[in-house]
Amino acid sequence: MTPSTRAPSGRSDHFLNTARGRNQFEPRHTGAALTTLVFGLCVVAAVSRGVLETTVGKDFGYALQAALLALLVVTLGASGPVSTEASTRNGVLLYGYALASILSAAYVSVFKDFEAAWLYVAVMLLLAVPMWFFSSHYFETAPRIHIPFWIGAAGLASVVAATAQQAGLLLDVLPGSDMASLGGLVRPSGLSGSFLHYPLFISLAFFVFAQLWSSRRRVVHGLLAVVFAVAVVASFSRSGAMILILGTAAFAITSRGTSQRIRFLFAGIAAALALPLLMRDTVYAERIISSVSLEGGGNAERVESWSMALQLWADSPMFIGGYTGMYTNITQNFGEVSSGVVESGALQQLVSIGLIGTVLGYALMFATFAAVHDRHAWLRAGTLGAILETFVYQSVEVIPFMVPFLLMPLISMHIAGDDQTFWKGTVEQLPGRSARTSQKAIG
């Protein structure tokens, strides 16, 4: 059992009182309605920058996304979360990451007179703090949050908008679609305001609903998983497809039980035989295959950007970086000077906050992976695939990517809410008389 599912002994009386007199352990209802509303607004806002941009303006849209993410943390924090055994370790990672980021920004602002470095650090910490929070606490209210509804609604609305855009509709209403790079074929932005951001959210939504279907066997969850997987392919997105492919491969490796792996192996062989036939000579297949070809559109430039980033890092203070906020879309989106992007989340961190900050930042991301329950193989696989994707694409600063990513532990707790053995196992972690009494109360 992962650390996020263990209740510390200091909260044993609370768990005892919660469990006593019930047939199974159930979380409190207190604040669930408010938390559900805030969660829904946070998720919807994360994928709706394009809508916000056309209504209230881009800057206010960014501010609203940030405010709702912070509000979700505050709301869940007020519900009395239980610190897990991983909390202290993850806290050290967060403090170290924050210190490295601040040192880097201070160096760049003083020696290179680039004050926008602080803007970059503020945004990255805005994402790092919730990442620590969700990977370091156990939330009793998680099973009562209507997580599938909100992620499904946000994802489905994005897919509908993207489908309309590919049919030539809404292109003058919702910004960010690409109609030039593929000879007139539309790479849709959905609601996100960017054709690069829309498929990232959808690809992670696929793993959420694949896990929901695997855990609950509800047809609607399986159908949504299929819709989201098809939508990623139809979006012509190589980054979204990479998350699907890497996550699916990770599932084959990390899934529990030999029988499950054998079934997946046969399913994978069947898919490997069927997909080339179904997608042969299609632009979708060509687009995905181009991901691993230097002749693929933009790949040569991507490799050049990687080489440039490594050279920049080598010429800077390597442990703290020397270009904080200079090679990122963050400062550019807020009207500040930017020198472009380096096309890799890992390399962006290297040039921005150096080796120390990069290692600590990715350690926080792997802490998110570790906080997902090990029974949730699809969810863990999608989380791992997302991490690996950031080495190739610059996704660590993208809100529609980072919000579902950092919410993965909370989603795992929600899915496990219907699993009585999961909650019984949580109570069994309590030492002494309280634990034995709680087990008896649960039955």
Describe the structure.
The chain is mainly alpha-helical and 443 residues long. The chain has one domain. The chain is built from 20 helices and two strands. The chain has helices at 12-19, 32-46, 49-55, 58-78, 87-111, 117-135, 147-166, 198-216, 219-234, 238-254, 258-279, 283-289, 299-314, 329-333, 345-371, 377-389, 399-406, 408-416, 420-428, 432-442, and strands spanning 82-83, 137-138. A two-stranded antiparallel ribbon has the order 1-2. Helix 6 (117-135) packs parallel to helix 15, helix 6 packs parallel to helix 17 and helix 8 (198-216) packs parallel to helix 17. The protein is globular and about 55 Å long. Mean pLDDT is 83; it is low at 1-30 and 423-443.
List the helices and strands and how they pair.
Elements: H1 12-19, H2 32-46, H3 49-55, H4 58-78, E1 82-83, H5 87-111, H6 117-135, E2 137-138, H7 147-166, H8 198-216, H9 219-234, H10 238-254, H11 258-279, H12 283-289, H13 299-314, H14 329-333, H15 345-371, H16 377-389, H17 399-406, H18 408-416, H19 420-428, H20 432-442
Antiparallel strand pairs: 1-2
Helix pairs in contact: 1-20, 2-4, 2-7, 3-4, 4-6, 5-6, 5-15, 6-15, 6-17, 7-8, 7-9, 8-9, 8-10, 8-16, 8-17, 8-18, 10-16, 13-15, 15-16
